Amino acid sequence: MRNPERHVRAGECHCEVCGLSRLVTTIGCSLQVVAESPVMQELLKRTAMFADADAPVVIFGESGSGKEVVARALHANSPRRQQPFIAINVAALPGDLLESELFGHARGAFTGAMEEKRGLMEAAHHGTLFLDEIAEMPLTLQAKLLRALQDGEIRRVGATQAFAVDVRFVCATHRDLGDYVRRGLFREDLFYRLKVLTLMVPPLRERCADIAPLSRTFLAAEKGESRTLSEAALTLLRAYHWPGNVRELANAIKYGAALAREGEIRPEHLPEELRVQQPNGAVSTTVGAGLKTLAQAEHAYVLHVLEQCGGSQLEAARVLGIGRNTLWRKLKSNPER
């Protein structure tokens, strides 16, 4: 979604490019979806098309790339927007506690269950349930989730009666779910039940055009004196490979805002890992520093062509002289990892 100051007329709440509402809400604040790069704009157009559907969605992407923000944008633009958006990180809880959190439990279901508890699926009734890191769900619990998806009903832990719930399931993972299925770590039937609609959030290093507007958005959210980013600082931000993606960028801006005292964030205010990576290679004296492998150079060129083609994989494949499936495999394999 483009910067609203530049691309949305006064009073408008929706992006001109993808049609999505440009603000998504959390309990404590509103988040602005920022996307200047063609690949992110294509993703948000796809998100807009999925918003009106009621089928499950799986969002793929590296940690910190913004999967939950995309999930919230999906909900905020859906017919369920007035109903709850409930998010839970599956990897954060052990299996037995996760089951109680999702499905609830009856009184006396286990030691310490002194009263009946409503689960998150009940809390998300008529709304959206966002299951982050779905690949980490224990196999035994996957079977119970599959039944909830198939039948639209759940049973609390320790209870004898089931009841209906109306929930749209949106899941996210940084894992290759297909590989997890092949390794027996994820149920194949649940995989195909969930993977009806899919979204792929590109890592930040593949959407450099978003770095500057994202940085300014994070900086504007900082409290205290108003600050700006110097061009030299922006150059460093654009040159960095961002293994932690958007989350790491937000932390870098917070770090810079804490150190800057004169209203402008300069290179010396940024975290050390950004400052040692000078574009001219002045810091590193290692032979071959800054050079890419053949696989890395090819991957970078493929991404460049894709961006020049406005994010169209069909057009990029035509320009590169390869099949679309070949292009998809080249995009999926990342030599930087």
Structural topology:
Elements: H1 4-7, E1 23-25, E2 30-32, H2 38-51, E3 57-60, H3 67-76, E4 85-89, H4 95-103, H5 120-123, E5 128-132, H6 139-151, E6 153-154, E7 163-164, E8 168-173, H7 177-182, H8 188-194, E9 197-200, H9 211-220, E10 228-229, H10 231-239, H11 245-259, E11 264-265, H12 272-275, H13 294-308, H14 313-320, H15 324-332
Parallel strand pairs: 3-8, 3-9, 4-5, 5-8, 10-11
Antiparallel strand pairs: 1-2, 6-7
Quick overview:
The chain contains 15 helices and 11 strands. The protein is an alpha/beta fold and 337 residues long.
Strand order of the largest sheet: 4-5-8-3-9
Low-confidence spans: 1-12, 278-290
Q: How many β-strand stretches?
A: 11
Q: What's the shape?
A: globular
Describe the protein:
With 337 residues, the protein is α/β, with parallel strands linked by helices. The protein folds into three domains: 4-200, 3-Layer(aba) Sandwich (Rossmann fold); 206-275, Helicase, Ruva Protein, domain 3 (Orthogonal Bundle), CATH 1.10.8; 294-332, Arc Repressor Mutant, subunit A. The protein has 15 helices and eleven strands. It has a five-stranded parallel β-sheet. Strands 1-2 form a two-stranded antiparallel sheet. The longest helix has 15 residues, at 245-259. The two termini are 27 Å apart. Mean pLDDT is 82; it is low at 1-12 and 278-290.
